[in-house]
Design a protein that fits this description.
The complex is a heterodimer of chains A (511) and B (327).
Chain A: E1 8-9, E2 15-16, E3 23-32, E4 35-45, E5 50-54, H1 61-68, E6 76-81, E7 84-85, H2 91-96, E8 99-102, H3 114-118, H4 133-146, H5 162-175, E9 180-184, H6 192-207, E10 211-215, H7 219-225, E11 228-233, E12 236-242, H8 248-256, E13 274-282, E14 289-294, E15 298-303, H9 309-316, E16 324-329, E17 332-333, H10 339-344, E18 347-350, H11 354-358, H12 365-370, E19 378-379, E20 382-383, H13 385-398, H14 415-427, E21 433-437, H15 445-460, E22 464-468, H16 472-478, E23 481-486, E24 489-495, H17 501-508
Parallel strand pairs in A: 5-10, 5-11, 8-9, 9-10, 15-22, 15-23, 18-21, 21-22
Antiparallel strand pairs in A: 1-2, 3-4, 3-6, 6-7, 11-12, 13-14, 13-16, 16-17, 19-20, 23-24
Chain B: H1 7-21, H2 23-39, H3 46-71, H4 79-95, H5 100-124, H6 129-148, E1 153-154, H7 158-165, E2 167-168, E3 171-172, H8 173-191, H9 193-203, H10 205-210, H11 215-240, E4 243-244, H12 252-262, H13 274-293, H14 298-326
Antiparallel strand pairs in B: 1-4, 2-3
The chains are: A alpha/beta (511), B mainly alpha (327).
């Protein structure tokens, strides 16, 4: 919390701080054809403050941010920066006003260097009109060094990992003299260690008096990084709280408008019968992976990014080649089989990267749900359309997918609903074992809780689940046992009764 | 499938969807017809219509296959050269006295082999389809010249010629082959698992792999089919023009691609319909025919064709822009 603040409590109990606000957005209205996207929303940011915005998907967070960033224009309302009313109607306006937005999908050009990306669109020129490469590199180097980064400005973006790319985005934002930096889900694709690095740089920014608007679905992060939090719901302002004074439960209640009595719904049962046995599994990316999976069990896979969790799953599922070891499903060897055959044995995999590996964006919800079970309603040149509809309807309703119709292209759904459709498409093939790789990444609280409920139901029905997740509370609360991976192999398998955050981390950093 | 209660309703529904999806190019097609009719009395004569259909049919064979290739996220530039190669081969084989059914089988097989080479390389490597089929286009065209020494192969076998020029019940034979091709492609794309898989791999190849779809197999299929359609076009053209010409089919792949894209398919894959391609090919065919009937200078015809295609695609683009905005 910045030290220069005096706190006042508004009559509603909201923590509104009025002195020398860096940014004030008031009475913001925005309508899209037929719907109110924002109705009388407010937001206030102080110099050196990290201000989180919380809300389910569709709550209006990104609309608000897009108005601030000049992508949308507001219908009504005022925006003040440093006490001056500003008119933001384009991205350039926003930039000139000192606002910089770091989007969830990074927008760096992959095959240009760091320096070229930082100066993209405003490259320094020599008198001759040619590019002043030396100056560009010199200044980029200085900007990186100022920020404590030892990267060479000539490194190509494609060679950086996601965390490093984010750092470059931040440096780029500062180089525009940004006073306000908006970060949209900055940690959604970072491992815990990288998140630490990001937080470090956020603190460095706030120390300079820069205000950060921080959007995240990860409630656990707020305590570590945010000073205040503004909650939105259905396009309306719900309230602003000082993070230290508010509990997660209270925030969830504010977000969903009701209390999620039990967020992680899990009823544990005794699991004894072995379903899947993996022995000495090796691929190009993992080695000597050993574990078993019992009927009706949820086996969590924890570890840092790059530990080999997703790669283990890809090897089991026949995507990556298995070089040694065996994978036994009810005693039957699956090693060397194709993905299609492995699916027929009853294994499903909901992949890690929903957009890249999961959805067929232009196609309908129906197409996406039924693609893996076409044989149930298509034979030769005959299509049983009613059957197709009934399969599609069954799983959209089981997973409570919110969409206008089953013909809606999946790309127009929210992340949570897309994830539910993908989940449904795997359930449609009635799997005995289902591997969920980061099942709740980047989706809102409501959808998360629904996915947990379905996982619990599946486990009760005797389906075995492998859940790869970087969300430790999720792993700890949902799993019967937790396998921890590090350096391409399993370093520990912990029972839920003995597992703690510390034990998992100890084993995750072994190599 | 043919549920008596719902069939008319369903038919009406899909007709509506078809009209809605293709409004832009249907209006364009209509406009072209009206303009030509006003300017030329002979346009609407039965002779001319049959003539146009026969001319269009070779492009349609290619475009039908190209629809699947484009939906699957690929492109096939080699089909024009397949036309030339199979044209001259069919000509020489017929003249050498080989039985015509055998000639047809051999030529279709040659087209299939050319396509399978494309398919094999594209599905086993990450080489871009554009480059692979571009190279194949050059190789096959060169091979055709080497084979004939650059000369045209004359054909005077009446039976063979009849396959390209004859009629059945007043309909030109090539148009009848076309109907078969269209039905086959329609069924594949709309009624079979293979069709769904074609859309899937073009829509998101990675996700298709994770869904257990044989990406290689599907790729192989579309390129082989494209090669076979190229050889069908090659033989029909040879029979129709009484000769196998090594220059035949030059640029035919571009007309086919233009027809598919006019028909609303995405060059990026994952989207496209055979019904749209049909209209696209009609527009291109009518342009050629109509501009001739209207006695427009042939050099200007080339320019006009480019302009019309550009305008049509632009109108479509504006339409999509509006649609995306209202979403």
């Amino acid at each position: 919390m910045p030290a220069n603040l005096n706190r006042q409590h508004s009559p509603e109990g909201d923590d509104i701080l009025t002195q020398n606000a860096l940014l004030k957005m008031e009475h913001i209205h925005k309508r899209f054809p037929g719907v109110y996207a924002l109705r009388d929303v407010q937001l206030e940011l102080l110099p050196g403050e990290v201000h989180a915005i919380l809300g389910e998907n569709g709550a209006g967070k990104s609309t608000l941010i897009k108005i601030l960033g000049g992508i949308y224009t507001k219908e009504k309302g005022e925006i003040y920066i440093d006490g001056q009313e500003v008119n933001i109607s384009s991205v350039d306006d926003a930039r000139a006003a000192g606002v910089s937005v770091i989007h969830q999908e990074l927008v760096l050009v992959p095959y240009l260097s760091i320096a070229e990306n930082i100066f993209l669109g405003r490259e320094p020129k020599k008198k001759s009109g040619l590019l002043d490469r030396d100056r560009m590199i010199r200044e980029a180097k200085k900007a990186l060094a100022d920020f404590g980064l030892s990267l060479s400005p000539e490194t190509v973006i494609a060679d950086l990992n996601i965390a490093q790319q984010q750092m470059v985005e931040i440096v780029k934002a500062i180089s525009f003299n940004a006073k306000i930096i908006v970060m949209d889900e900055p940690t959604s694709s970072l491992a815990d260690k990288e998140v630490e690095v990001l937080f470090e740089s956020v603190r460095r920014l706030t120390a300079r008096g820069i205000g950060i608007i921080y959007i995240s679905h990860r409630m656990s992060e707020l305590g570590q990084i945010a000073d205040r939090v503004t909650v939105m719901r259905d396009g309306e302002y719900v309230g602003t709280k000082v993070v230290k004074d508010v509990t997660t439960d209270e925030l969830i209640t504010m977000m969903v408008g009701r209390s999620l009595s039990r967020y992680y719904t899990r009823t544990f049962n005794e699991c004894t019968e072995n379903v899947l046995e993996v022995k000495g599994l090796c691929s190009n990316k993992v080695h000597d992976v050993n574990f078993d999976l019992k009927k009706g069990e949820i086996l969590g896979f924890a570890g840092l990014i790059g530990a080999g969790r997703s790669e283990t799953m890809k090897a089991i599922f026949g995507i990556d080649k298995v070089t040694a070891g065996s994978v036994l499903l009810n005693g039957q060897e699956l090693r060397g089989k194709k993905t299609k055959e492995i699916m027929q044995f009853g294994i499903g995999l909901v992949p890690e990267d929903r957009r890249a590996e999961g959805i067929f964006p232009e196609m309908s919800i129906k197409f996406n749900i039924t693609l893996k079970v076409l044989q149930e309603f298509m034979k030769g040149a005959h299509v049983d359309y009613p059957k197709e509809d009934s399969i599609s309807d069954a799983f959209t309703s089981r997973l409570a997918v919110k969409a206008p119709s089953s013909e809606t292209p999946i790309r127009s759904l929210s992340g949570g609903n897309q994830q539910k459709v993908i989940f449904g498409s795997w359930l449609a093939m009635n799997p005995k074992v289902i591997i969920l790789d980061e099942p709740t990444r980047g989706i809102d609280v409501g959808a998360k809780s629904e996915i947990y409920t379905i996982m619990n139901e599946l486990a009760r029905e005797g389906v075995s689940i492998i859940m790869v997740s970087s969300d430790l509370p999720e792993v700890l609360n949902m799993s019967d046992r937790i396998a921890v991976m590090s350096g391409g192999t399993i370093t520990a398998i912990l029972d839920r009764t003995e597992a703690t955050q510390e034990k998992i981390m100890q084993n995750a950093v072994q190599y | 499938m043919l549920n008596t209660m719902s069939t008319p309703a369903k038919l009406l529904g899909s007709t509506k969807a078809y009209l809605k999806r293709n409004t832009g190019i249907l209006i364009g097609l209509l406009a072209i017809c009206v303009i030509i009719t006003i300017n030329s009395k002979s346009f609407l004569s039965q002779d001319n219509i049959m003539n146009v259909l026969r001319q269009i049919s070779t492009n349609m064979y290619l475009a039908s296959a190209m629809t699947m290739v484009l939906i699957a996220g690929g492109i096939d530039l080699s089909v024009g050269s397949v036309i030339a190669l199979t044209g001259v081969i069919s000509g020489t084989l017929v003249m050498a006295g080989i039985p015509i059914p055998l000639v047809i089988i051999i030529c279709l097989a040659i087209g299939g082999v050319c396509g399978s080479v494309n398919g094999f390389i594209i599905s086993r490597t990450t080489l871009p389809p554009f480059i692979v089929t571009f190279s194949m286009m050059s190789i096959l065209r060169g091979a055709t010249y080497v084979y004939t020494g650059g000369t045209t192969v004359r054909v005077d076998n009446r039976t063979f010629i009849n396959l390209g020029t004859g009629y059945l019940a007043g309909i030109p034979l090539p148009v009848l082959y076309l109907l078969v091709v269209l039905v086959v492609v329609f069924i594949i794309l709309n009624k079979t698992r293979l069709g769904r898989h074609i859309y899937a791999i073009g829509g998101n190849q990675k996700a298709a792999e994770f869904s257990g779809i044989s990406v290689r197999g599907v790729r192989m299929f579309v390129y082989v089919f494209s090669g076979v359609m190229g050889s069908l076009a090659g033989m029909v053209l040879c029979a129709r023009s009484y000769s196998g010409n090594p220059v035949a089919g030059n640029g035919a792949e571009m007309d086919a691609i233009a027809a598919v894209v006019l028909g609303g398919a995405s060059m990026a894959g994952g989207y496209g319909y055979i019904g749209g391609t049909m209209i696209g090919a009609l527009i291109i065919g009518l342009l050629n025919n109509g501009l001739n009937l209207m006695r427009i200078d042939s050099y200007w015809q080339i320019i006009l064709k480019g302009v019309v295609i550009l305008v049509a695609v632009y109108v479509d683009y504006v339409k999509n822009l509006k649609k995306n905005k209202s979403n």
